[in-house]
Design brief:
By secondary structure, the protein is of the alpha/beta class. It folds into 3 domains: 260 residues, HUPs (Rossmann fold); 124 residues, Anticodon-binding domain of a subclass of class I aminoacyl-tRNA synthetases (Four Helix Bundle (Hemerythrin (Met), subunit A), Up-down Bundle); 48 residues. Helix content is 44%, strand content 15%. The protein is built from 14 helices and 15 strands. Strands 5, 6, 7, 8 and 9 form a 5-stranded mixed β-sheet that branches. A 4-stranded parallel β-sheet has the order 4-3-10-11, with helices on both faces. Strand 5 and strand 6 form a beta hairpin. The two termini are 40 Å apart. The structure holds adenosine monophosphate (AMP) and zinc ion. The site of adenosine monophosphate (AMP) has 15 residues, from helix 1 and strand 10. Adenosine monophosphate binds next to helix 1 and strand 10.
């Protein structure tokens, strides 16, 4: 049986025990709003994908089978606008940024989703839902031929964003993104073709046109995950109108609860401000790497803050993270050395392991989890100082540390592919010496390279070869 976990549901505004729809309560379905592929992902977008990765990794660690779908929005107002500006066919334009997105998430060690549906492959599923909504009084065709969702026809409209009692909806809105704090609007399900759409259109019973953004996610989510999904995630900006509209369309269509737990992550700010090109504070992962900030550092930076708190990106904060990682690397490498100590107090190690799990089980409490890691390091160092760090304990400590790293994926140096003991390193060095003596320089070089790949740097000095860990 998987371990219990409680998550903060934005709809009920309560910490909610995860109880998957799956009868065995073992399989969890998750839908996360993915990238709109009209540009490179910025580090704010990446924050969202990172905490979502933290979630799915935690669920796996807890013993759940995760079925994760992340959509690719490859047709909407912005993709059409920018493909036209770039003078490229929509598909070619969006493919470029879809590829860049996959490179970014792989560089950040984000566990791939099970499915990455592209909106343009699901037009007929969207049309099926729209047809039903029209036939059942939830939607209407406007004078110019677009189809709109009629929010008055759905009694629960506004329940997610808390705008349920706002009655004044003055007009309908054609754009995908809007932020109207006062009124609510009928929103577009299907947008009739306009000249600026160029060759981007699909035939439909309502004439040629294209889907609105919101219906895309409902169609793709239900196609893969069924009518009721366990967890739906997105950034805070997705809550209204996007997710509010997803609920309206989906629940009007199925008559069932669309999502059991809604999770919304907070914003990433740069120097306390919203990122924007005009402020010059807009960064992609590539920009960070050019400044010498590794994906591992950025990953740990993001995962050090709880997903429901804003993060302020500054270069000072990154420096702090780098210092923390350096200390953790030292800790990890200190576990390499064999030990002759006595001591077998395994319970205390299990205590830390439990505490860590408990922290994650309360809405992914990363601050608590990291505090436990610091305590753990202190505890191990204390054992060493008291000569109680036996080999048996060391092995157990490594196991537990690697378990912690299953979710963080940044606690262990990324270069260290395999764990080499000091004895193994020294024997490799001897092997290399022998090869050099016999003028087998190819073999000697090969050994040096192999060691390098495993995080070990060799230096040939007049006194012989010395080694150190790559930092
Ligand atoms: P988009 O590509 O604009 O559809 O956004 C993809 C994801 O990134 C969504 O879940 C957004 O909520 C999220 N997102 C956008 N900007 C930020 C930001 N500055 N901080 C955190 N998440 C963001
Ligand atoms: Zn979405």
């Amino acid at each position: 049986m998987p371990l219990p976990i409680r998550l903060y549901d934005s709809l009920s505004r309560k910490l909610t025990l995860l109880e998957p729809v799956d009868t065995q309560r073992e399989k969890v379905t998750i839908y996360t709003c993915g990238p709109t592929v009209y540009n490179y992902a910025h580090i704010g977008n990446l924050r969202s994908y990172l905490w979502e990765d933290f979630l799915t990794r935690t669920l796996r660690l807890f013993g759940y089978e995760v079925i994760h779908v992340m959509n690719i929005t490859d047709v909407d107002d912005k993709t059409i606008r920018d493909a036209k500006a770039a003078n490229l066919p929509l598909k070619e334009f969006t493919n470029r940024y879809t590829e860049a997105f996959f490179q970014d998430i792989s560089a950040l060690k984000i566990h791939p989703a099970n499915h990455y549906p592209r909106a343009t492959d699901f037009i007929s599923q969207m049309q099926t839902i729209i047809t039903y909504l029209l036939q059942n009084g939830y939607a209407y065709v406007s004078e110019e031929g677009s189809v709109y969702f009629k929010i008055d026809a759905f009694a629960d409209y506004g329940k997610l964003s808390g705008r349920k009692n706002v009655t004044s909806h003055k007009h309908r809105i054609a754009t995908d993104e809007y932020d109207d704090k006062e009124g609510l609007h009928d929103f577009a399900l299907w947008k009739t073709w306009k000249e600026e759409d160029g060759d981007v259109y699909w035939d439909s019973p309502w004439g040629k046109g294209r889907p609105g953004w919101h219906i895309e996610c409902s169609a793709m989510a239900m196609h893969y995950l069924g009518e009721t999904i366990d967890i739906h995630c997105g950034g805070a900006d997705n809550l209204f109108p996007h997710h509010e509209n997803e609920i309206a369309q989906s629940e009007a269509y199925t008559g069932k609860q669309f999502v059991k737990i809604w999770l919304h992550g907070e914003w990433l700010l740069v120097d306390g401000k919203k990122m924007s090109k005009s402020l010059g504070n807009f960064f992609t992962l590539r920009d960070l790497m050019e400044r010498g900030i590794s994906p591992r550092t950025f990953r740990f930076f993001v995962l050090s803050t709880h997903y429901r708190s804003p993060i302020n990106f500054t270069f000072d904060a990154i420096q702090d993270i780098e210092n923390r990682l350096k200390k953790m690397d030292e800790f990890w490498y200190s576990l390499v050395k064999n030990s002759d100590d006595k001591g077998d107090n395994i319970e205390e190690i299990l205590f830390f392991e439990n505490k860590f799990i408990q922290a994650l089980a309360e809405d992914l409490n990363t601050s608590k989890a990291l505090a436990i890691l610091s305590e753990f390091i202190k505890f191990v160092n204390q054992l060493r100082a008291n000569a109680k760090l036996s080999q048996k304990l060391l092995n157990e400590i490594k196991r537990v540390w690697l378990k912690f790293d299953q979710v963080y994926q940044s606690l262990v140096p990324w270069e260290t592919r395999q764990f080499l003991s000091e004895v193994e390193i020294l024997s490799k060095i001897q092997e290399r010496e022998l090869a050099r003596k016999n003028k087998n320089f190819d073999i000697a070089d090969k050994i040096r390279q192999e060691l390098y790949q495993q995080g070990v740097i060799l230096e040939d000095t007049p006194k012989g070869t010395i080694w150190r860990w790559r930092s």
